[in-house]
Write a structure and sequence with these properties.
mainly alpha
Length: 131
């Protein structure tokens, strides 16, 4: 079940991150409503974090690190967009994504993850003797 949650959350964030690069001007306008400066830089940075962390979750590569970054992004979204604009997305979907990322922080990658394969590879390496 953890793998399903990880992949779902990864897909959602990869999509939301990519959107910020496609409709940047709209996103900048929205970010200004949330109290951010009128600059595409913050939109690009958030989009890059969401997209890369989403890919990491889908692959199960550094899943806890990706979930930590996305937890911070979702907390920020709730405290800015949620409190200034509200609505079902900012006060409905964002808290659910926050909780799912907190779960992934606790549970890790689950099955079908590169993290598990890397850990297995590390465990199968012979120890080197110190000279």
């Amino acid at each position: 079940m953890t793998a399903v949650i990880r992949i779902f959350v990864g897909l959602a964030f990869a999509f939301f991150g990519a959107v910020k690069f496609v409709i940047t001007e709209f996103e900048v306008t929205e970010f200004v409503k949330f109290g951010f400066p009128d600059s595409p830089v913050i939109v690009y940075l958030v989009g890059l974090l969401e997209f890369c962390a989403g890919l990491m979750l889908m692959l199960g590569l550094g899943a806890r690190l990706a979930a930590l970054g996305l937890t911070i992004v979702m907390a920020g979204a709730i405290l800015t967009a949620g409190l200034t604009v509200g609505g079902p997305f900012h006060l409905g979907v964002a808290p659910v994504l926050l909780m799912l990322n907190l779960y992934l922080l606790w549970a890790g990658s689950g099955s079908l993850a590169i993290d598990g394969r890397l850990a297995a590879t590390e465990g199968s390496r012979p120890e080197r003797l110190a000279a």
